[in-house]
Amino acid sequence: MAYVVTQVFSPKDKWKKVARPIKEQILQRMIVNLSSLAGENRVQLIATGQIDSKIPRVVDYEFYVMWSVDIEEVSKHITQNLRESEWNEYFDVVNIGGRALNVPQFAEIVLADLEAE
């Protein structure tokens, strides 16, 4: 199965103070960097959007991006490209990742963890 990386992020004060043309340049660099990975079939964008605050126990971030990658190592390229585009300078970012599992595989891991306690 694929390796999945989810990123949640919110703008820092620095982003809010930057003029729109600079914001557009930063976004364009991020798009170009990540599009090159997608063009090489190294990553697949699953979804991106604004986090719905009405969901119970929602995280305190504004946006999300979810990627599917072939192997765990490639997920490092996503975070590297975001760093190179200065994204982390303007946004508070949390990265979450793991191997995508089917329901029986997930249940097996959760049960094994419970038995270890």
From TrEMBL:
Pfam families: DUF6616
InterPro entries with a match to the protein in the record: DUF6616 (IPR046724)
Domain of life where this protein originates: Bacteria
Protein name according to UniProt: Stress-response A/B barrel domain-containing protein
Source species: Commensalibacter intestini
Lineage: Bacteria, Pseudomonadati, Pseudomonadota, Alphaproteobacteria, Acetobacterales
